[in-house]
Amino acid sequence: MKDISVGLIGFGTIGTGVVKLLRENEELIQKRLGARLVIKKIADVDIKTPRQVPVEREQLTTDVDDILTDPDISIVVELVGGCTHAKTFVLEAIRNGKHVVTANKALLANYGDEIFSVAEDQKVNIGFEASVGGTIPIIKTLKESLAGNNIESVFGIMNGTCNYILTSMTKDGKDFNSALKDAQDLGFAEVDPTYDIEAVDTAHKLAITLSLSYGKRVSLDDIYREGISEISQQDIEFAGELGYTIKLLAIAIRRGEVIEARIHPTMIPFDHILASVNGNFNAFHLIGDASGSVFLYGQGAGMMPTASAVVGDLMDISRDIMAGAWRRVPLRSYRENQIEDIDLLGMDDVATNYYFRFSAVDRPGVLSAISGILGSHNISISSVIQKERKLDRDAVPIVVTTYKAREKDVQMALEEIDRLDIVFGKTTLIRIEDDRLR
Ligand code: HSE
After folding, report:
1. What residue spans define the domains of the chain?
2. Residue 190: what pLDDT?
3. Percent of the chain beyond pLDDT 70?
4. Which of 104, 113, 253, 383 is spaced 20 to 30 A from 125 at the CA atom?
């Protein structure tokens, strides 16, 4: 049986999972592949700390060149993370004619263009299933299974930390900080958790998803992004009263030749398919013009779920090697010379439904002043909730939801409303995705 040699750079949690999975399912993998995947070398700055899986001393090195320059190694697995060293290692591996498997979403979202173009020149493949949605086969689904479809929309819960926090706040009444602490203790938060809660991580994943769905180059800065740090318990309770749950959604919608792409906390009806995605799970709801709805759900992080995606890529690339093809499926699902710059709809022109929570004095005429301004900006109200005040001087929350309105109109109306002296502080805005409110 043929041996395919693999070099692993980064022996952390996922690296350990990859070694463990290749060992535990060795026989199964050989039966399916018809070859042996052999981890020839593992490079890490720390080769002393014992891992959860035994490895031979000679497999370990602190020098990446032992992998990058070894002609015997066909596939390099990059699990270092970040963009500095990882970029150098990946480009070097590609230039040395090695196929690469990576879980590094930040690297691909920031430097994908350069990396894919060098890979194309060098005729090597790049597997990156683990970079978006962990174990979920979203990359393969977009590149292969749905290749005959126009992707009409992708709605995704792409960050386990945010989903875990929002679920804990909703179901257990936890406060934001203790829910975040739990997520960090459980090990799926990024090293810098602002990447999770300010939706940077989700933006990386949406950029990759967009590029595969539409064959486009995407600049991260062009994607509208709002995180979850402003979500309060009060808004979660009002959402529940309105029949909604709040999720951090990554949204891509095809609007003819233009693509709408945005990430923000979103209220969705309890019976929406993504509403039941709880805890640290990720999910994708795709609509193809031929396929209709496709739903993918699973662990977006974690040792063995992520290792599953990495090993799947290793097997995919190995199959191509064994078939004598350097790569069967284009890197970004379109042929590289067909990749174009993306034309994104400006956020001002997005039209959706809205939830506003005004904090206002409770006296005659307040509601009509607010609704008057909304009306003058072409914003139609679908419901209003006002709770009774406890004391005369108290501000009361007034919650308003709307039919479809244009973002630009909404921003102008809120600016005007927030200037009223009957309204205190900045109004809370949360977008709603509810097909019933057209
Ligand atoms: N920090 C990420 C998350 C890990 O919470 O989903 C996987 O990319």
Report:
1. 2-134+303-337, 138-299, 349-432
2. 85
3. 99
4. 253
Cβ–Cβ under 8 Å, residues 58 and 47: no
Query: What local confidence, expressed as pLDDT, does residue 241 receive?
Result: 97
Fold of 138-299: Dihydrodipicolinate Reductase; domain 2 (3.30.360)
Angle formed at CA 353 by CA 351 and CA 356, multiple of 5 degrees: 120
Note the pLDDT of residue 394: 74
Helix, strand, coil proportions of the chain in percent (round to 5)? Answer: 40, 25, 35
Give the per-residue pLDDT at 363. Answer: 86
Token couple for 206: 């949406």
- What is the CATH class of 2-134+303-337? alpha beta
| Segments of the chain scoring below 50 in pLDDT | none
User: Are 310 and 185 within 8 A, CB to CB?
Assistant: no
Select from 218, 163, 164, 153 the least CA-distant residue to 186: 164
Those residues whose C-beta lies under 8 Å from the C-beta of residue 392, and which sit 6 or more positions away, are none
Ligand 1 pocket, mutate which of 196, 249, 280, 299 (most atoms under 8 A from CB) = 196
Tokens of 178: 């203790």
Name residue, tokens 């502080």. Answer: 425
Q: Is 171 a catalytic residue?
A: no
- Catalytic annotation, pick one of 40, 98, 140, 205: 205
The answer to whether the Cα torsion of 142, 74, 35, 17 is positive or negative is negative
**Architecture of the 349-432 domain:** 2-Layer Sandwich (3.30)
**What pTM, to 2 d.p., does this model score?**
0.96
What is the whole-number distance in angstroms between the Cα of residue 412 and the centre of ligand 1? 35
State the distance from the centre of ligand 1 to the C-alpha of 16, rounded, in angstroms: 17
Residues touching ligand 1 (Cβ under 6 Å) are 134, 159-161, 188-190, 196, 201, 300-301
